[in-house]
Each structure stands twice: as C-alpha cells, then as structure tokens.
Write a structure and sequence with these properties.
alpha/beta; Rossmann fold; 3-stranded antiparallel sheet; 20 helices; about 15% strand; AAA+_ATPase; HerA-like; AAA+ ATPase domain-containing protein; ATPase_Atu1862_pred
C-alpha cells in the first residue's frame, strides 16, 4: 500500500501525490515569483517528513523553519568550507538525516560551488548508503542554467554536472530530485526533461508558457490558461499525481518561512512640515549597533548532530511472522515483475526491496543483503522454504551468489521431472544476455560435480543432480533449434 501525500484540492476533490511513485519519477515545479512555489514545496515536505529522508538545498534560507517541527538539521553553508560540506553530505547519507542546506549568506558563484560539492558527495556515497531520499532544489535555474552567465565556467560546469547527475542518474542511488524554478527557459533542458511529474504555476512570458504547455501535453493555443492561474494554483500532471492535467489549489502548511511577502501598512499620519523637521533634526545619540550574530557551530559539532539524528519515521506496526513473510514475498514479487529486474545489480534491487517493505508498514530491515540475494534467487526459481529443499539450498550455498538462481531453476525442473530449462531462461536468471556465459556456467557446475549434463543424438539436453537423485526431462537448449534443423521434403 503506497503513501499518499495530500497537497490540496481540485475543486472539492482532494489531490494526492503517490510518494513511492514520486521517488521513482521525480518532480518539476515552475512558477513566477509569488506564484506559491515555496508554499507548494513546504506542503510536500511537511506531508512526507515522517515517511522519507529529506535533503533541501535552500538558496534563501526559507526552509530552515522545518527543523522546529520536524527536526531537520540546519546547515548554514557560509560558515564552512567545501570539504566540510562534502563530509557532512557523506554523513547525511550514512545516517539518513533530514537536513536543510541554507545558502543564504553566499554570493551566486559560491552558492553554485557549494551546491556542486554537496550534491556530488550525496551522489558518490557508498552503495550500502543508497537509502531513498527526496532532494529538493529551490531556484533550480541558478544551479542548472541553460546558458552561461556571469559566473566562471568552472563553477557553472560543476553545478550543472551535479544537477544532471541528480536528475538523470540519481534514482538508481535512491535520490529523487524535486526541483523548482521561476523560469523554465533559464533551466537546462536535460535537467528538466528527466522529471515525469509537473506542477506548473502562474507565468506570463510566452516562452515559459509554451514550454510549460509542451510538458503538460497541451496545445500552444491552450497555454494562456497558465497566465490565468491564481496564486497558490498549479496545473498538475504525472504518474505520481494524475494522468490528465488538473488544476490544484495547494492547501495550508504548518510551518512558515523566515521571509514573507510584503504587506501594505498604513503610512505615518504626520504633517509634511513635521516630517521635514524630523528628517533634518540632529541625532541625539548614535544608534546602538546590532548585536552580533551567534557564532556558527564548528563543522565537527554539526557532523555529530547528523550522526545522532534519526529520521522521524512512524512507529512500525506490530506484524506477526506470517504478515512479515507476506510483506517480503509481495515486495519480491513486485521487484521480479519489473522489466529487466534480473539485469540490475543486487545492491540496487535491495534498496528497492527495503523501500517497498517500508511502504507496506515493515520499517525495520526484513532481510540483510545476503538473505535478500538468497530469497531473490529462490523467488526467481519458484522455490520455497519447504524441508525437502534444504539439501538443494545447501548445495547452492557453496556456489557464488549470482549462480544460485540458475542452479535452483535447474533443481526445480529436475525435481518435478520437467523439461530442462532453455539457455535463454537460465541466462535471464543469471543476469546476462550472453548464452556463452550460460554454457560456461554449466561447465563450471559439472566440473564441481554438482550436475551431469547429457545430450542425446537428437540434440536434446537433460541434466541430472547426482547428490539429489533428480533429473530433468530432455529438451533442446535452444527452443528454435528444431525449426532450424527441419529439412524440406524431397520431391519425387
């Protein structure tokens, strides 16, 4: 069961975002200044704070207030070097801490350099730390500009490369990019194109309206509707939200930004003469200097806070042994149903498995990586934990991990007296498209005395497992082989 994040309403109907789908498909938010982008991001972050790690790159320091309610660690980037920022990013991935990286006190080029170092360290984290996390980048056009600006080429390339990695390759590492921009025309196209979900707010420039309409699948003549949106209204589209464009009014939030939109206040009710006298009057005493800002925390102290921070996940429901096993089996079945799942690294599949288990209420790790490899191989071969499989599993445990699935596939066919699996089926279980590797695999197992392969005069192969006393029925290694061997009848 997925987690739905309520973001607002379409008329009277509530509109939700599927968090699991959002992690896989990413999000792009666009709207002019004052359209409500930051409010929308805050609504999404507040709704998902208890379910997933959040990492926020905040150019204006608006999201620091999330820490007061949800425990996000605030990092004032201006107080640290890029090396210290990268070290913090490594710890953030390791300990799954939710953080806000505030770039408020930095110049534009320094912001780009800092964001590049931070994102690169998140991206380069060790494989065992590839936990799912939402990475929010506000004002994304600053960090992924479409054209060169006033900053140095080195800073622009580093920042653009880090943003491209986040949006193009971050999903395999558990990083889901949620980016917001004022101007689509100023955002690099290869960064924007990787998002599959869109929330388009009010904008007035023709070039931005045209790009927004293209992303929403609307005709150019329909783009004027984007100009007519009210503040806090967005056109939504994407697999995590809706399959057809809808208009969403974003709901209320629990926290507030440190900065707010300007409001009208009454002018002072003084006569012009009194105002002139007031402005020209000599000052009686020098104004008191503002108190100095608090000293920034040392980098080691911030790292210690990150190390001791734990994500605010909801309490895990009490599940019986049968319920936990059902969650594990369901997650494994969904993974195997994904296209090309057999060709993905086991570590990447393991992170996907942990995420699916958490979405079903099993927050603690149901299996370690070694146990996951074993269960995944068993699921691929259709083998269960019945006692009559103990000896076969013990033999398979002596093989390298990647060979367990094809061995169990052979063992199941031999136990059932079914036809010997074709090379192509074993190649998929082995995680390869090379039939030559499958033949070398069978040769290796035969050299180890695990199996005996026999090919009859008709070209059919049967495989016996001498330790178990099981043998497959003969079958062609290649199902297309009989048709290729067929000969046309001789004319009389």
């Amino acid at each position: 069961m997925g987690v739905q994040i309520d973001i607002g309403q379409d008329g009277s109907a509530p509109v939700g975002v599927d968090l699991e789908e959002l992690l896989a498909t990413r999000l792009l938010v666009q709207g002019n200044s004052g359209s409500g982008k930051s409010h929308l991001l805050r609504r999404l972050l507040e709704g998902s704070a208890e379910h997933v790690q959040q990492i926020i790159i905040d150019p204006e320091g608006d999201f620091v207030s999330l820490g007061e309610v949800f425990g996000h660690v605030a990092i004032e980037a201006s107080a640290y070097s890029t090396i210290e920022i990268a070290r913090m990013a490594e710890r953030i991935r390791e300990h799954r801490a939710s953080v806000v990286l505030s770039l408020e006190g930095l110049e534009l080029e320094a912001q780009m350099r800092c964001a590049a170092a931070f994102l690169s360290a998140l991206f380069d984290a060790p494989r065992e730390h590839w936990y799912p996390a939402i990475v929010v980048v506000d004002e994304a056009q600053v960090f992924a500009p479409a054209v060169a600006g006033e900053v140095s080429d080195e800073a622009r390339r580093a920042s653009l490369g880090a943003m491209t990695n986040l949006m193009c390759r971050g999903r395999k590492r558990g990083l889901a990019g949620l980016i917001a921009t004022q101007r689509l025309a100023k955002l690099a196209k290869n960064v924007a194109a990787e998002a599959s979900n869109f929330l388009m707010g009010r904008t007035f420039l023709d070039i931005d309206m045209a790009r927004a309409a293209d992303l929403l699948g609307m005709e150019r003549r329909q783009a004027d509707v984007i100009r007519d949106l009210e503040r806090g209204q967005f056109l939504a589209l994407g697999p995590a939200i809706t399959r057809r464009p809808i208009k969403v009014r974003i709901g209320a939030v629990r926290t507030e930004a440190r900065s707010a939109s300007p409001k009208l206040v009454p002018l002072p009710s003084r006569e012009p003469v009194d105002m002139a006298a007031l402005l020209h009057a000599p000052s009686e005493e020098a104004p008191r200097p503002a108190p100095p800002p608090p000293a920034p925390r040392p980098a080691e102290e911030v790292i210690r806070i990150i190390d001791t921070t734990r994500p605010a996940l909801p309490a895990e429901p009490s599940l019986s042994g049968e319920e936990r096993e059902a969650v594990v089996a369901g997650a494994l079945a969904e993974i195997l149903a994904e296209p090309n799942a057999a060709f993905q690294p086991a570590a990447s599949l393991y992170q996907d498995f942990l995420l699916r288990c958490r979405m079903r209420g099993l927050a603690s790790a149901a299996l370690d990586l070694a146990g996951f490899r074993r269960r995944l191989a068993m699921a691929q071969a259709g083998v269960d934990d019945a006692p009559d499989w103990e000896e076969a599993l013990a033999i398979g445990a002596a093989l390298p991990d990647e060979m367990l699935a094809p061995f169990l596939m052979l063992a199941k066919a031999a136990r059932d007296g079914a036809e010997c699996p074709a090379d192509a089926a074993m190649a998929e279980a082995y995680g390869t498209s090379s039939l030559g590797r499958v033949r070398r695999l069978l040769s290796y197992m035969e050299e180890q005395g695990i199996l005996v392969s026999r090919i009859d005069l008709g070209g059919k192969r049967s495989i016996s497992l001498p330790h178990l006393g099981w043998t497959t029925a003969p079958a062609f290694p290649d199902p297309e082989q009989p048709s290729r061997l067929a000969r046309p009848a001789r004319r009389r």
